[in-house]
Design brief:
By secondary structure, the chain is mainly α. The protein has one domain. The chain contains 6 helices and no strands. It starts with 7 loop residues before the first helix and ends with a helix.
Length: 149
């Protein structure tokens, strides 16, 4: 399934499908633990404000997508071989759906659970989405380089 064979639409669909390869149950557990820990720290330190839920939810979302995306790149035992091969050949494209989902969900969390406006929440969400894209893309690129070498 080479890149030349796929249209832009098909390439997006394959990227979204390849995002399902990750260990999402484990990622859910990690996200809940991180969010719960961050909320507990906020409660213990007395950081009471309107934003008390926005920060922990944002951290939980970041670690959820980080574990799910990077874990999907490192796993070898599950999923469709064609999807896995495509994701291995396109490490940055296969990371885009997770980074986009994190951007949208973190923006919504900051707006709905915190006191941020649309643009403030969007700009604040760019950093974790960019970090996720960078980490998962580098992991995928290193895996691709090791596979070739």
């Amino acid at each position: 399934m080479g890149h030349e064979e796929l249209s832009r639409r098909e390439s997006r669909q394959v990227a979204v499908a390849s995002a399902t390869l990750g260990p999402w149950r484990t990622a859910s557990a990690v996200g809940v633990v991180v969010a719960g820990g961050a909320l507990a720290v906020d409660l213990i330190t007395g950081s009471w404000s309107m934003d008390i839920l926005a920060g922990p939810v944002g951290l939980g979302l970041f670690f959820f997508f980080l574990v799910g995306t990077v874990g999907g790149k490192l796993r070898r035992d599950t999923g469709d071989r064609r999807l896995r091969r495509w994701a291995d050949e396109h490490p940055w494209r296969s990371t885009l759906p997770a980074a986009g989902a994190l951007l949208v969900l973190n923006t919504l969390a900051l707006m709905l659970l915190g006191s941020a406006g649309l643009f403030g929440a969007l700009f604040t969400s760019l950093l974790p989405a960019g970090m996720l894209l960078l980490v998962a893309g580098v992991v995928g690129s290193v895996k691709q380089a090791r596979k070739r070498g």
